[in-house]
Amino acid sequence: MKKALLITALCVLCLVLMISCGKKEKQEDSPYLSGLHHVELVIRDYGTISLELDADTAPISVTNFINLANSGFYDGLTFHRIIEGFMMQGGGFDEQGNPKEASPIKGEFAKNGVTNNIDHDRGVISMARANDFNSGSAQFFIMHQKATHLDGQYAAFGHVTDGMDIVDKICENTPVQDGNGSVALKDRPVIETIRVID
Fold first, then answer.
1. Where are the strands (E) in the chain, listed by range?
2. Is 50 exceeded by the pLDDT of residue 21?
3. Which residues contact 185 (CB under 8 A, 6 or more apart)?
4. CA 19, CA 52: separation in Å to the nearest integer?
5. Shortest CA distance to 185 belongs to which of 175, 194, 193?
């Protein structure tokens, strides 16, 4: 009887180990990051905005953003659209106004069939896109104030942990050309670099 119980217990243990190893192997095989990651967005004449990115909620967006940052893609790009009380958008144009593009990624939000529970609250970072749900690539925006109408329609993927005073300064003091928040070349805040911490 004891021998049979011991054999049964060993079989259960082996089964548990096989399942856990299988899960680990599956995670390691994934091309996307998981967990929390931290980056620093350095903006010329303003300072550094620290961000925590959530790859468990938006693995495609976070992996894409970190890969672009590590490659130096964002160095010298600008914030070209800024609306006080709403958001600041950048990562698509250089200081001369030339567009810079990356490969499009899947939009990780409810309207596109993806669960994403990060609301567009003050300080949240999210992927910009065109009308096509899967047209996001490199451009992103940081929320100046909460905007619930974006929830479920844009891929939020993290939030500011330090430097909201810089977001406030940029959103409140940058002159814009129209109601859409278009910023003249000479007034566009410049991204010196985005440093990946972990």
1. 36-43, 47-54, 77-83, 87-94, 124-127, 140-143, 156-162, 191-196
2. no
3. 95, 96, 97
4. 31
5. 175
Number of CB atoms found within 10 A of residue 32's CB: 13
For 21-25, 111-115, 125-129, which range has the lowest pLDDT when averaged over its residues?
21-25
Whole-angstrom distance, CA of residue 123 vs CA of residue 146: 8
Question: Is the model's pTM score more than 0.90?
Answer: no
Which residue is listed with tokens 């990356």? 102
Q: How many H-runs (helices) and E-runs (strands) does the chain carry?
A: 3, 8
- Quick one: tokens of 14? 């082996």
> Residues near 113 by Cβ (< 8 Å), separated by ≥ 6?
none
Residue with tokens 């119980």: 5
CB 66 within 8 A of CB 53: yes
- Give the mean pLDDT of the chain: 90
